[in-house]
Amino acid sequence: MGLQSDAEKAQSIIRSRLCNSSFVFKPLSDSPDSNYSKLKFIISSSITEGCNNSILLLGPRGSGKLAVLELVIYDLLQEHSDLISVIKLNGLLHNDDNCAFKEIARQLCLEHHLVFSKMASFDDNSQFMIAMLRECGLAHKTIIFVLDEFDSFAQGKQRLLYSLLDAMQSVTSQAVVIGVSCRLDADQLLEKRVRSRFSHRKLLFLPLSMEDVQRLLEHLLFLPVNTGLPHDFASQFNGKLRKVLADERFKEIIASCLNVQSTINNLLRFLFVAVSYMEPKLGFLSLENFKNALLSIQRQPKQEGIRDCSILELYILVCMKRLEVKEQNSYNFASVMKEYKSIHDSFHTSDYYARNVCLRAFERLLQRELICFTDSRGHGQSVEFRQVKLLISFGELQEGLKSYRSYPAILQKLLDR
Amino acid sequence: MSKEEDSPVIRRTTRSSSSAPVKSNETEIKKNAVTYSPTINDLAFGEDKLSFNDLLSSFPGRHIQIKEIMRILGPQDCPMFPQFIYGGASTGKTSVVLQIFRHLNRPFVYASCRTCYSQRILFECILNQLLLHKKNAANGYSSAKRCEKPSDFVNFLREAVANVTNSLKGNLGELGGSKLGGGPNGSMLYLIFDNLELVREWDKSSCILPFLFNLSNILKMPEVGFIFISNTSPDTYYSNIGYLEPIPVYFPEYTEEDLRQIFLRSQSNRKLYSSFLDIVLRPFCRITRKVDELAAAFSSLFQKYCEPLSDLTSVPNEEMKRKLFSHFQPHIATSLNEIFWILSEPFLEVEPRSETMQKGITRKLEGDQEFAEMDFHMSTSAKYLLISAFLASRNPATLDASLFDSTGGSESRKRKRKASEKSMEQKEVAEQESLLKGPGTFPLERLLAIFQCITSVLDGYLDEEEHANDLLKVGRGDGLMSDVLLQLSSLCNANFIIKGGSCPLETTTRYRSTISEDMALKIARSLKFPLANYLYRR
Q1: What is the value of pTM for the model shown?
Q2: Which of B80, B250, B501 is closest, CB to CB, to A380?
Q3: Is the Cβ of B409 closer than 8 Å to some Cβ of chain A?
Q4: Which of A158-167, A369-378, B123-132, B398-407 has the lowest mean pLDDT?
Q5: Residues B48, B11: contact at Cβ < 8 Å?
Q6: Interface test with B, best of A92, A330, A389 (most B CBs within 10 A)
Q7: How far is it, in rounded angstroms, from Cα B103 to Cα B84?
Q8: Where residue A145 falls among pLDDT bands split at 50, 70, 90?
Q9: Which of A290, B17, B176, B273 has the highest local Cβ count within 10 Å?
């Protein structure tokens, strides 16, 4: 019982670590040429020198751009808290200019203990922002604008970006604009008038190296020896884990996980599932946990979809495939039924059902999204006559059939010819 | 989806209204406002707890999935990555999740994207539940907050969640760790989004879907867990914006063995039902493995199976089974080719979700068997109209003149040309084309013209044969024509004829008939109308 509760405690410690991004990125920020150090240098120099700056953080989704930025901002706030105020915007939320200015005004008011008026117009808000920039510049206070999903701010007229960057051209203001985006061409999306005001500093977030992964694993999974948990449980846990980490098979698993997507977030997700697979009764992380986690994360939805099909639905899929092989590229339910009938006529299969039963099966396939209509509108036309297409390839269908529990052998034959 | 699945929203409503069922309106409002205002405890299931074994036994065939979801949920107050639960319709996703929360007794907020059919309604529904706000007459059935934009939603949500978790923590502190109070366990809150696949159709250009997937990242609150439930697999959500993938949990379709257990659960005489399932389960599983569809089919079949039995509680022996089988066998093949029977009295334990599936009236009416049994109740002129619509859809317009000339009928039309190879090929191509195109469209004038021709020809027939059937003795033209437009509009409403597809050159609406040939023939037979003579065949 003692072991079980300890194990549960250990599990929740690791889980909260994995969900806490500032903890995750701590070890990666030590080295001087890490993005953390670069970013911190740029921002802190523009704070101390009182100049304007703009940076883009680029990298695939889930590579920890925002997490690193937040770590930097957190540290800077510790160092000189009265010199910074941070405004955070997200492109998913504030992609129309009106809403973005409102949010900026709201956050500025909150920060400076002013009364925010919901009724303020677009013009009021933008003037308020410029006035605030000037005031803060006079008080030698830097405003950091964090624009997450930067690319969606670059859609439309880019009024927000223009007025922000334009205000920064004046001597009095003191601001840093940090764009975060997973589009590597984010700066190419800017209009000319915006681009010329933007300093083209970019920080790229690269995929993890193997050493980084190793360091992260140790940092995340090893239990602290001195706090909370009983000493011998923690050391035993760490000992067993060390063995697992050194195992060749474990390295293979990690590699196949990172081969798909080598971002930190993907790794975290994988570790999270592995840790939640841990048996509290056993008390330790085993290789088996990691193996299961890999299986449950790397799913093949189309294969699963084919395995879910009934025999009749498989027949319909095979008929559609046959039509495609015959180079009849557009077909609908009616023509599929013709093919189905011709199969029945020549092979006398036992699975020949009425047309409306087939239509139901056809609709289930549509629901599973193994097939779909080629046109999205299709008003005024019933299901039977709208053109459809397969969403699975020949290989997928064949593999799906092979993993199907017991399918009629005739299907394979029909597919091959 | 089984019966015990009732969304928490409904549960809360019934609980509150049952507290004052007989009082007059004002006192009820008062009571609602004073004694029953939803508390923080209402975010969890509360008193009726479910043990883990009961949970497992109530979902045969879903043990692996239940354990997997519980593993990812983790121990109490443990932060988690967003979860994505997917699987076909009627595989028990929603009910499993809700029952797990009933077992764990943790606070959660459930919002189905089917009932919350737009962005604003979804946001307000979630906020209402979090702010413990109930729509009633006193507040004019309005929501707690007006919230249309995602940005507002995030601000409100952050505030509301902070309040809720604080008071949950306060609750726990007061109770001093003892769980006797019936309050929810833990201070972590879970947001459940059901029917997520519908969100894709809400607004093509909006970014609501990436917003929902990234919500946990935007909020950055470890005390909120996210669970998404969807009919379709994660790969159908890919867009060019991208999102952080949640952890997938897959609900496969039930296997035959699972289905047997599910169907046996609700039966009083298990032995009898089991012998019934021995016969029907396998052939039906070849068509579909959906519980709702099978349940609908089995319920009527089982009655047929039991017909020779006088005592439904008796345990059948081998000889009896054989007898029942021989009696029952002929029904199997026919019932396999039927779809969807609607019983007059609701019997099912597992209710078919017919209302949620999108089914036109036509579908239910299209089956052959249905027509054989229930007569097609329609006025004669409507039947004629339907036939003329069918003809107008199938026949090329250029042939109208020759088909409906003064001699009537097409008996004289004989095509005795030898089919050359090339013409055969052309014929095949044309046939394929017609299959692809489906029924053609026609303007109203053509429909009326054909209608008039048909009815006039019919009069001719009647005169010739002197077949004075008083049912069909309708005055020439005028009688039938009187309310033909009215009939047409009602046929359109019933989906037999579709309006639409207007020609860009002329502004008139065009129509299209949806009925199948079988059905048209059936109607023609009931009118004794020689439909085959008028159909153009290639």
Answers
A1: 0.83
A2: B501
A3: no
A4: B398-407
A5: no
A6: A92
A7: 20
A8: very high
A9: A290
Read off φ and ψ for residue B12, nearest 5 degrees. -65, -40
Q: What is the per-residue pLDDT across B95-139, written as a single tens digit (0 to 9) for each?
A: 999 999 989 888 999 999 999 988 889 999 999 999 888 888 888
Strand partners, B511: B442, B499
Helix (H) or strand (E) holding B422: helix B421-437
Stretch 4-63 of chain B: residues touching chain A, C-beta under 8 Å? none
Each residue's pLDDT tens digit, B475-504: 444 455 567 888 888 888 888 888 766 556
Q: Helix H segments across A247-328?
A: 248-260, 264-276, 287-297, 301-308, 311-325
Q: What pLDDT, in 10s, does the model give residues B400-418? A: 777 776 554 444 444 445 5
In three-state form (DSSP H/G/I as H, E/B as E, the rest C), the secondary structure along A218-237 is HHHHCCCCCCCCCHHHHHHH
* 3-class DSSP state of B255: coil
Chain-centre distance for alpha carbon A118: 33
The secondary structure of A63-107 as a DSSP string is: SSHHHHHHHHHHHHHHH-GGGEEEEEEETTT--SHHHHHHHHHHH
CA angle at residue A160 from A156 to A161, to 5 degrees? 90
What number is the ipTM of this complex? Answer: 0.91
Q: Is B89 on the interface with A (CB under 8 A)?
A: yes
End-to-end CA distance of chain B: 48
Helices vs strands, H then E, count in chain A: 20, 8
Out of A19-28, B49-58, B421-430, least confident range: B421-430
